[in-house]
Amino acid sequence: MKKLQLLFMLLGLALPTLTFAQTKNDQAAAKLVETLERQRFEAQVKKDYTVLEKVFAEDLVYTHSNGKQNNKQEYIQSIRDGKSQYEKIDVEALNVRAYNDGKAAVVNGTITITLPPKPDGTPNLAHLKYVVVQIKDPKKGWQVVLWQSQKQPEAKS
Description:
alpha+beta, isomerase activity
């Protein structure tokens, strides 16, 4: 019985170290992906289709905050058609965790999107929490394979 208790105690001490240990490649990847996230938001605002074609994987699943899903072509086309419009995207919080020796990353964050004004001229803001999965393709670099967002209630003054 004492051996079993000792084993559980040792596992309890070692598990956090094993679970959260990151390689240097993971740490470098996390920093790079954070930069790429910000660049992608900028490309969405500027309608930089060259960047968007590169950063979104062919098998992208893009789930909007209203639950609607798009693949890569549909999402980029929605920007071209004006269905997805972004005047500004402010990053409020961003957390990147890299895995698999810097070959995969999970991003979660909070953003505020400034949309075109409402018909009455008042500001139109969307506060979102989101999750992104990025995979490092050996030939194409880092690509977004999954986006999922959820609207947050507006802060009351």
